[in-house]
Amino acid sequence: MYFIALATDYDGTLAHDGIVSRKTLAALERFKKSGRKLVLVTGRELPDLKRVFPEIGLFDKVVAENGALIYTPASEEERVISPSPDPKFVARLKKQGVKPLSVGRSIVATWEPHQATVLEIIKKMGLELEIIFNKGAVMILPSGINKATGLAAALQDLRLSPHNVVGIGDAENDHAFLKACGCSVAVDNAIAAVKTTANLVTRGARGKGVEELVDRLIKRDHDILPRRHDGIALGAAGGDDIYLSPKDTVLIAGSSGIGKSTLATALTERFVEGGFQFCIFDPEGDYDGLEGAVRLGDGSSAPTKAQVLDLIEKADSNVVINGLALRVNERPDFFADLLPGLGSFRRRTARPHWLVIDEAHHLLPKRRDDTRAVLSLELPGTVLITVHPEAISTDALRLVTAIIALGPKAKDVIKVFCSETDIDPPKDMASPKGERVLFWRPRKRKKIAKVKVIEPRQSLKRHSRKYAEGQLDEAGSFYFHGPDDAMNLRAHNLMIFAQIAEGIDDKTWEFHLRAGDYSKWFRNQIRDKDLARETAEAENDKKLSAEESRKRVLDAVRRRYTAPATAPED
């Protein structure tokens, strides 16, 4: 499910002449049985609503008084989120003959044509109040209080995102909350302005329109809107914008160092802009310092399942799960332990909207026998990033709906994917040129597009924590052995490298320096060309003493990797 809740107006939408039909009530019950939530959003005062609608207990939350009052039927708790009416204001209205006049916990309501009198009194008293219209009704509320603010408060209680809510209404005062929903719907009897701005208009009026909407949502809510409506812009191809949808499972693949993490970073920026919650599984420490996200774990301590699930409960919290402290063979078990709980949470709330799984071949490896059990039937809103698509579980690959292939071997990525999933590869593939990538939707079998992808605004220190604090394997480590092989000191990360370098004798230091071993390691294993270049300059400067060259190299390392995260980059 993507749309977890239905937020509906009452009069003119759910109800006809104040009454909800049996068929409409049955549709609401079907909706609840599907595991979804119901929110009633109305201008009515609560006592009046309870009188005309005894089935109010069907709803998980009620937003009454046009957004001023939140009511929970299950507990009968009432929460007013705006000030009470000023008694002097009410007295002035009565004195000026404004009637009928209704006074609620926060709302003051009357009918046209009294709006002119109301506005005049507001101005004379200097009150910060707003007038909201509803098909002839005139509602007066504190400034900034409307159905949208009330719905936001109700969704916060339910721990739901407005992206996962369908709103349906008919009148002027419904504009605000419909606009705040992930999908806005107007019933057929709605005023023209509401129909114009809604994403969908039902064929049926009032309750029949609600019944129609419920049936569509239960049948296949993912298909109710086009992909680009809630989509994330990937880039452009041939003048057309390319979007990724929260219902997509995306594979980003290409050779090492080709820009996969950079693209993922750009996508997270779009997630933040759109108000989408995301969670990144970051085995290598690529996303340290990512804007708009909280990091769990570091090079010395692994995050726990409880920490992750607790943090994502908050709809405005984005999470980076740093797995540097986990050994490569521990990562699949950690992920397998976490994914069921995360999947259960997503089924209840549709959050996080996006999961980004970097080094996916580590977390969903083909060699695991229980991957099928770990995976849910779908992985919507998931981005799998890898250098080795052939090493990812075939069950996971078969869920992919969009492929982004980068670099000179982009064609090979698509060929490997097709081979692993038994899909015929597309014809006339050509490698992308310049900054473009190959984009293909294997299920739709459309022609491959060459996309100019978006660029991130922020620059991450790629793999900085992995190389600074993590544990490189034996082949990737640096070994100080000296001119006579008298020692064999292993540096499995840059922090250990710096510690050993400071303690070894000058003869050993200069042996590796003059052989160019340091720049070679930085270039080939750390994959930092700038650090390698700066180190090579020290290696080639014969005028430098051992102490001077050591200081220059270690200063370059610390400046890039082991300095605090707030330190400026070169």
From TrEMBL:
InterPro entries assigned to the protein according to its UniProt record, in alphabetical order: AAA+_ATPase, HAD-like_sf, HAD-SF_hydro_IIB, HAD_sf, HerA_central, P-loop_NTPase
Pfam (any one): Hydrolase_3
Domain of life: Bacteria
Protein name, entry field: Phosphoglycolate phosphatase
Cellular component, GO annotation: cytosol
GO MF, one annotated term: magnesium ion binding
